[in-house]
Structures are given as structure tokens and as C-alpha cells.
Amino acid sequence: MSAHRLLSLGAALGAVASSGCRAPATLTPSAPDVVSVANAGLQGPENLVYDSAADVFLVSNVAGDGGTRDGNGFISRVAPDGRVLDLKWIAGGVRGATLDAPKGLAIRGDTLAVADLGGVHEFDRRTGAPLRTVALPGWMMNDVLFAPDGSMWVTDTGPDRTTTPPDTTRDVDAVWRVAPDGRVVAIARGLALGRPDGITRDGGGVLVTTFGANRLEHVGGAVPSRWDTARTLPAGRDDGLRRLPDGSLLVTSWDAKAVWRVALDGSVTPLLTGVTSPAGVALDTRRHRLAVTSMQGNALYLLPIR
């Protein structure tokens, strides 16, 4: 898109936010209030996180096959108005960085954690310099969060179910916890998890989306944990998951091509529809706007949220 259109749409979003006007309940990528960041060099943007200290989105790009160690992955810095500030801010094979198929991201202090094949890479949030890699027993690490005690929780989406039977020789669906001292524990593990993907805190445990089903699963904090279905969703291949300040949830669904808001009473409201492979979702806490990645569309959408 042209820079003029990009900036004018960003100004329009700012006007909506400052005036207190309510956006339509459901938007599409072509709606006037939606900023579309396309043809900007993004390659398989899988997830993103809003860095409130730097006022920037950090976007993970798989840039190839999501299950292959090819060193092609990279992290982009994108401004809240959609301008790509640094397409390959962190890139596999550059300045000692390892990134193969980066997916979920999380920030704690000045540490940026990035879920990748076989583990989690940590970088300096300010400079992008690599800090350490935490290896995990599984393979398809998908999302990551930091708990208040500094531990990391990581989803492992497990083997592709399109093969019969699925290849479990190196990977089984799991939720891992990495203690601050580096000890790794499987909080939950088994194909019945339904390919855990997005993750957010939920009391002493976590909620995870299921890319292989249409559920939100609650995983407790005990070891080993019991897990149970917290919510059944309208459609499957559920991917991104974030919690809003009011306690409601943001969930993306590839099958529905939508971003939903799931209220505390369980009601589901579509916020954005007609999106190809909506993957990651993040909240710009300064402007109360959403950012959503379209993984197969190589695009990013910015929109106001009521």
C-alpha cells in the first residue's frame, strides 16, 4: 500500500480513538478503519507482541517451511501506524542469531523470548542481540509467555495429523515450563491436547488454543497437570490468544477466518472477519488497537477495538 494511504489510515484510527467513537462490531480487511500492511516484505508472519516501552510491534516471520531448520526466520519491527521500521531487525545467521521458524514472542523486562523449532531463543529487547537458547524435548514450539516468577511456559503444537499415524518419534503435543534456573518440566503432554498453540495466563495455570480442534484448554500449574476444556469455540484451527485488560480473550481462527472476542460469560463476538490464516494477535495498549497477522497472506492488519 502507498505510504500516503498508510499514514492517512493511521490518522483516521487515531481520530476514532481520541473522539471516543465506537467502531463497527465487525470489520473486514478492506474496511476504512483497518490499516493493511501488505507487500512490505513480511514472509509468513506468524505472531507478534507489542513492546510498550519502545512503542513498536515485534513480528515473527517463518520465511519458509514452518518445520524445517533452514535459518531463514526473522523478526520485524513495525510502528503502530503500520510502517515497517526494520524488516529484518533480528535475522537467522546474522550477528550470531539463530532463527529457523520463529513463532510466539514474549517480553519480560529487557528480554525478548521467541519460540522456535526445538526450543526458545532469548534476545535483548533493546538491541536484538542474542542472549541464550533454551532447548526443549519437543520440536514444534509455538507460543511462549513469562509467568510472574520469571518462568517460561511454552506450547508445543506436536506432530502433523495429516500423516497416518502421526509421527510422534520426536514430538508430542505438550505445554512446557522452563524454571528461572533452566529446569524443564512437561506440565501437560499427550495427543489429546489437540495441538496446543496460543497461550495466556489463567490463574495459577494457563489457557491454550487448539490448532487441531475448536477448544480452549485449561492447563493447571501442578506437575503433572490435569487439563480440561474451558470453552468450545464456533470454529477450529484456533491459533492466536491474548487476554484483554477486562479479562476477555482475543482468539484467532483459521477455519472461521476471524478474530473473536470471547467475553467472561463465554459469548463470542467477531471483531475482524475475512482474514486468510489469522495467526498472531496483539494489543497496542497505548491506543487500544489490535494488530493481527495473516500468515499465508504475508500481511498485518491494524484495527480499533471497542
UniProtKB/TrEMBL annotation:
Work out whether the entry's keyword set contains Protein transport.
no
Q: What PROSITE patterns does the annotation carry?
A: PROKAR_LIPOPROTEIN (PS51257)
- Sorted UniProt keywords: Signal
SMP-30/Gluconolactonase/LRE-like region domain: residues covered = 104-295
UniProt-listed SUPFAM superfamilies: Calcium-dependent phosphotriesterase
Signal peptide range equals 1-17
Q: Which domain of life is it from?
A: Bacteria
* InterPro entries per record: 6-blade_b-propeller_TolB-like, SGL
Q: Does the keyword Signal apply?
A: yes
Q: Name one Pfam family in it.
A: SGL
Q: What is this protein called?
A: SMP-30/Gluconolaconase/LRE-like region-containing protein
Q: Which organism is it from?
A: Gemmatirosa kalamazoonensis
Source organism lineage?
Bacteria, Pseudomonadati, Gemmatimonadota, Gemmatimonadia, Gemmatimonadales
